Amino acid sequence: MASVTESIEQMVNPILSKYGFYLVEIEYVKEGNSWYLRLYIDKPAGIDIEECSLVNQELSDVLDEQDPDLIPHAYFLEVSSPGAERPIKTERDLQLAKEQFIHVSLYQKLNGQKVFEGTLVDYNAQELILEIKVKTHKQQITIARKSIASMRLAIEF
After folding, report:
1. Which residue ranges does the record assign to the Ribosome maturation factor RimP N-terminal domain (predicted)?
2. d(Cα 117, Cα 50) in Å, to the nearest integer?
3. pTM for the whole structure
4. Has residue 85 been placed in a domain?
C-alpha cells in the first residue's frame, strides 16, 4: 500500500503538469493536535499565491472525491512556494540551481570550514564545484557530495 505522500504525489502531478508547475516536496506531519498536508510547488519563473491557491483548490476537489478517504481524519491542506532559500535535495533541484548562489553545509570541515556559499558551477554524481569569494578574488572549490549535510539556495549580498 502506498504512503499518503506517495498517493498525493500521484494525484497532484497531473494538476501541476497541466500548468507547467512541478512538485518540490510533500510533508504530511502532525504538529500539536493537528495534521498538516503541505505541498511545496514551483515553476522556473517562480510561483505566486494565486497559482498556489489554484492547485490547493483543484487538489482539494480531487481529495474530496476519494472513497474511501485517503486521509480519514481532519487535516489542513497547505500549498505554497518553497521560498527564496529553498532546500536542494534532488537531482532536479541541483539542475535548477546550476549557476545560482547556494549555501552548502558539510558533515566535517573542508579547508577549515563546514559552511560554504558560492555559485554552483557544475556537479556530477560524486562532487560539485562551487565558485566562492575569498577576500577580494574568486576561486573554485570541489566538494565531495557524500560530505554534504545539506544544501539550499541562498541570497547573495
Report:
1. 11-85
2. 32
3. 0.76
4. no
